[in-house]
Amino acid sequence: MPTIDLDYLHGFSGFAVPDIEAARAFYRDVLGLEVTDGGMGLLRLILPGGADVIIYPKPDHVPAGFTILNLAVADINQTVDVLAERGVEFLHYDVDGFEQDDRGIANGDPRIAWFTDPAGNILSVLQN
After folding, report:
1. 93-108 pLDDT tens trace
2. For residue 109, what is the domain's CATH number?
3. CA of 30: how far to CAs of 23, 40, 82, 88, 117, in Å?
4. Phi then psi for 39, rounded to 5 degrees?
């Protein structure tokens, strides 16, 4: 097979939500991320570091059973406190050998805490 150079221009990921306006408010106002209109009813989420994620409407959306977005932070304690003040509820997993503090922070490497967006998608904040 001949070698063909692939000229990728840009990469991005995406995920679904049932309510675009709820997603816009959550990602912009609660998480403090940059959210713009992506055209055709989509949202464009610009992550720290410049990566793009599209958020698209799907009325029959079913959340994935895994983390769809991880946000690295400098101070997980402060981040969890601020997000909790903004109404974010952190998940607690009941798994043998997996320890989380009362706020939901797993103190491994990395230190990590999980939560959901309004659509039930799982996200995390983590500190290496």
Report:
1. 988 878 999 999 999 8
2. 3.10.180.10
3. 10, 24, 9, 8, 10
4. 80, 155
